[in-house]
Design brief:
By secondary structure, the chain is an alpha+beta fold. Helices cover about 30% and strands about 30% of the residues. It has two helices and five strands; from the N terminus they run H-E-E-H-E-E-E.
């Protein structure tokens, strides 16, 4: 892949992630937590764990606050709250979070 195509591809992935993940928001409902894992390197890896868990529909990832922690969630709270350093997202990009 030439460098221009690679740059466009990388930018495309970046924009998809921006549309899919919600920075500095969380769904703080421990009753919906399926499991949590430490030592996860990115929100995308946390989402992969969610995809591979049949009970998971959403995830939260600690990007700065609680760095490397990944919470898999069966549901989300009625409304998301501001939580700097946390990234919240759906099991599959393209899923609307209402």
């Amino acid at each position: 892949m030439d460098s221009q195509k690679k740059e466009n591809f990388t930018n495309e992935i970046y924009y998809v992630l921006l549309e899919c993940f919600y920075n500095d928001l969380d769904s703080p409902s421990p009753e919906y937590d399926v499991q949590w894992t430490d030592g996860i390197s990115s929100a995308a890896k946390c989402q992969e764990l969610c995809k591979n868990n049949r009970d998971c529909n959403y995830f939260s990832y600690g990007s700065t606050t609680h760095h490397g922690k990944c919470w898999l969630k069966s549901e989300k709270a009625t409304s998301l709250i501001s939580h700097p350093g946390i990234i919240f997202g759906p099991k599959i990009c393209g899923t609307t979070i209402t």
